[in-house]
Amino acid sequence: MRHYLDFEKPIAELETRVEQLRVTAAGGTVDIDAEVARLEAKAAKLVRDTYAKLTPWQKTQVARHQDRPHFKHYLTGLTDDFVELAGDRAFADDPAIVGGLARIDGRKVMLIGHEKGDDTASRLKHNFGMAKPEGYRKAIRLMQLADQFAIPVVTLVDTPGAFPGVQAEERGQAEAIARSTEQCLAMTVPLIAIIVGEGGSGGAVAIAAANRVLMFEHAVYSVISPEGCASILWRTADKAADAAEAMKMTAADLHSLGVVDRIVGEPLGGAHRDPDAAIGGLKGAIVEELDGLAALGPAELRAQRRAKFLAIG
Questions:
Q1: What is the DSSP letter of 250?
Q2: How far is CA 254 from the centre of its chain?
Q3: What φ, ψ does residue 202 adopt, rounded to 5°?
């Protein structure tokens, strides 16, 4: 069953009508193919027009859509094989960040990313993609391993932010995020980061300080969530839409500011409507970026990455 967002109600009404007509046609002798085709064309145009003028807050809703692909879906669509490497070798394994060795179109990579989960049980297991210190220390361990064996790193970012709980703070959350960001900047192999959904605060930057930062068309990337920003500035989360507008968190805004290097297009209506097409498009972009960075030596890769982020600051 397709899940519709609040601003998609007119689309939902049309597409529901199309489905009802199809059921009617299947059980009767009346030819209504022409009417179905007309309504389908009208619905497709409505989707196209709606998604061509999404507000930043609407894009935030799309980026959080429950049917949007998650890390496990990218594993299936992007990789030829995957060997998970778990644990930080210090405290525990954090399911909010998953990583391991993989092949993308025959190219060896270390693939690391946030996993939010897609039902109640898996969301609780993966803590809604909010990593704890051991998650970032696992990412550091895998990046160091990739650096040691000259394997490019690809990261998939999709998190509302690092876990803010007391236990995470007690185990050194801020230090772990800082060390992970530092490790990104120190790498001598190509590092490509893709914002596939939400890119929230330091929890995202910790694995996204890359040579090339890609971002899905309807993803968002910001220093704080719109609700959090609104709560600080206006003392109410009801101003989240205004905060989203002010923070310039969309792919187009961030590309114009130089924070993001490339926008990856999504299928009409967002990645949640056609996950296979979205993942296929991303795979092509990753392969292009890997091939482009292959010409740079270790010192050049590190210098380019550091210069990029110093220029942003």
A1: B
A2: 15
A3: -65, -25
Read off the pLDDT of each residue in 195-218 and give the average, rounded to a whole number: 95
For residue 56, name the pLDDT band (cuts at 50, 70, 90): very high
Is residue 159 within 8 A of residue 112, CB to CB? The reply is no
Return the percent helix, strand and coil in the chain, to nearest 5: 55, 15, 30
CA proximity to 189, closest of 212, 205, 206: 212
> Is residue 262 classed exposed, middle or buried when 0-12, 13-18 and 19+ CB atoms within 10 A define those classes?
middle
Burial of 94 (0-12, 13-18, 19+ CB in 10 A): buried
- In angstroms and rounded to an integer, the radius of gyration of the C-alpha atoms of the chain is 21
Contact call for residues 251 and 213 (beta carbons, < 8 A) = no
Q: Phi-psi category of 10—alpha, beta or left, where left has phi over 0 and alpha has psi -120 to 50?
A: alpha
**pTM passes above 0.90:** yes
Q: Does domain 59-312 have CATH number 3.30.230.10?
A: no
Residue that is written with structure tokens 């597409």 in the block:
15
User: Of 205, 107, 119, which Cα lies nearest the Cα of 157?
Assistant: 205
List the beta strands (DSSP E) in the chain.
81-84, 97-104, 107-114, 153-159, 191-200, 212-216, 220-222, 262-264
The amino acid at residue 74 is Y
